[in-house]
Amino acid sequence: MDVFVIEGGRQLAGSIRINGSKNAALPLMAASLLTDEPLVLSDVPNLSDIRNMTRLLGELGVDSDLATPDHGPDHSQSHGPDHGQTITHRVTDPTQSHARYEIVRTMRASISTLGPLLAKRGYARVSLPGGCAIGQRPVDLHLRGLEALGAIITLDGGDIEATAPGGAPDGSGGRLIGAPIFLGGPFGSTVLGTANILSAATLAKGTTTIESAACEPEIVDLANMLNAMGAKITGAGSPRITIVGVEALHGTTHRVMPDRIEAGTYMCASAITNSKLTLQNCPLDAMMSAIDTLGHMGIHIDATGSNDDPMRRTCTISTSGTIKPVQITTQPHPGFPTDLQAQFMALLCLSNGNSVITEKIFPERFLHVAELTRMGAQIHRQGATAVVTGVKELTGAPVMASDLRASAGLVIAALAAKGTTVINRVYHIDRGYEHLESKLAGVGASIRRADAEEFADSIAAL
Length: 462
Ligand code: EPU
Description:
This protein is an alpha/beta fold. The protein is built from 15 helices and 24 strands. Helices cover 28% and strands 26% of the residues. A hairpin with a 2-residue loop joins strand 20 (378-382) and strand 21. The longest helix is centred in the middle third of the chain and has 13 residues, at 260-272. The radius of gyration is 22 Å and the shape is globular. Residues 23, 26, 109, 135-142, 185-187, 190-193, 338-339, 361-362, 404-405, 432 line the site of uridine-diphosphate-2(N-acetylglucosaminyl) butyric acid.
């Protein structure tokens, strides 16, 4: 198992290119199940979740051809528009419709194969995802939506078994029927649930209206690609999406939108080290809430270069040297994203006052609090709210990564902390940040990946 060893306190300088988005790419890849023709995705990030989705699609009869551009070891440089992997997906065996627990348990986004399988093959068997470090994460809204489209759904041996009207386990037929669907739940809408229903409804007979749809930019990216494949979707990005079902979808070539959470993470890294980093391929248009919050903290994001594509801008991050306290409440898009909560909390640990962070999407998503406290942070959590009292400095310590974004928060704290931080279990980070250590090292951070054995004594104490 790997660890990151970070010596804090260095200022950063230079430029980082933002990857294609993991959370956009996963449902886009699953949409390859909807067509008999090749689907070509470019700027796909090279991450363990992407490799797991490729493996899962392989088991579902989809061949994936990978082309990785060779840009050398310096990942901090910008390499133009075609950077990132290009993957060509093509269905070769439509009879395999079982997403097994062995893969699903490694990646919850496997659930996004359910809608496409059911819509195209009339049948799907997808393991029910289990527990998760950030909360309970049920899929009841996904299932309710598919039932509204006429699917018969049962649970069998931990698997969701779903059959469209007229469908059978050999995938020989069946077709969903368009319907009005309300996707609102106790915490707002559901992102992957919206992706599932949206994808499924493209091939349904008749018209589907999703009310209380997720408005996340990754849903807009999916709808844009599905429309390029021949779907008839309007309203994506708003809470009401209308889909007029078509008989078949064709292949297309699509460039994955840049990762707004990776971009927000590097904005925090720049701010906490009082640096002036430049980010390229940055989806500023999808980041208004995070940018507004940074502004209140005294951190400025200035777009530079041409304004041609507001989702792929170059920007610089600058600070006044003082981080001001703020109140943050995580909300569905366009509100403040839960996936940046841990990183902003790390930044606020060094503010000059009291900040209040309320988590409204995953109320249990606070595993990073105890680890930040080990580094000298002052954080008091009560239920879904944490009060962060800024301290003068953080100190390096051995800490434990618990989930993807919590781990990113620890990296940010470590960049500013005095001394050495050893972050254990960095496989969590590898799920969502491509080449994090070489990108940060490329702009001057002292960070290296090492074998956990080297730090066995300090980690054993955790
Ligand atoms: N929910 C339900 N029932 C459902 C589905 C969701 O009650 O059927 C609840 C959840 O428990 C949660 C809320 O609704 O309280 C929102 O969950 P959502 O379904 O939107 O989450 P998701 O689609 O499973 C995606 C991202 C997450 C991100 C959330 C919220 C992907 C692959 N994952 O998950 O990303 O936190 O939306 O924005 O797109 C991450 O990247 O670190 C990550 C966890």
